[in-house]
Amino acid sequence: MKEDSAAWLRLLEMRGYLCHGLSPRSIDNYGHALRVWAEYCGKIRLTVWQQCTVEVAIAYVAWVKKRVRADKTVLNLVHFPLRCVELLQQMEPGEVHPSFVIPYAQFPKQGAAYRGAVISEARLSEAMGICVRAMENTTCLSRSTIIPFIVLFCLRTGMNVDSVMQLPRDCTVTNEAGHWLYWQKNRSQGSMRDHYDAADWGAVEIIHALLRLHSNPHVFSYGVGRTKPLGRLAHDVRAWCRDNGIEEFTLKDIRPSKATLIYQESGGRVSEVQRFLHHSSLNTTILYLSENIIRPMHEKALAAGQEAMLERWGIPKEGEA
Rounded to whole angstroms, how far apart are CA atoms 236 and 255? Predict the structure, then answer.
């Protein structure tokens, strides 16, 4: 496919959406991945995106694997171009072949864990109810009694676990409309600020309740004189689930599960999920969405787009005279 063609230019627009906010080095790396994809498209004479089926994507993964040995390099070269095609499929139904889907099963294992970690909406609601009841009856903190506070806070905010566990006592500031919550996003070394209204067992109320129960430097710590965040967290959360009759999960499962739920509730708006997860790039956000959820939604959007095109062209639907 020629890089100056209209189809290729639309794909470059998708690259712009996915690369927004990334460092120049990351953008250069993704540009290289697109050049490799362009080379493959030329090799198989793929001239329009309607020809890009899931079989083409699988063949591309195999072709890249023959060129490089390192799993991480395979993932970088394959993942980004196919995400560009996926985003084009979502934003312009009809431009990409209806059967196209990213073949995640063909990828190296790195970075694929999020898509299998989805807690159902019913299980999330059940966990929230149990957390609230437990917090209302908590009079002193221990290794077990602090778990409901942590679980509900992660559900309310969508923060990474490491950021939650490092919140200092002075992380909230009250204003006339509610509260500001200041926190550190460790992976990007960024200082973040979120606004929260007053709410029953909202993020800020959870923090204030914990601060009334201890005097430690970190919000999510327990015990007299303890200064470090809680350790062995995954083990403790699983034990809490078992004790309360909930199917086991960990805090790392909450973030992609909540992201997928927001994606469904917003009607497939990735930007809403991006805002909740505090991502600078859609490229990162898409990793958190469950393939089993977004695939049917994409198919529904494609069907609606194709039906609209048929109506615009005056082509009768199946079964119509």
Answer: 18
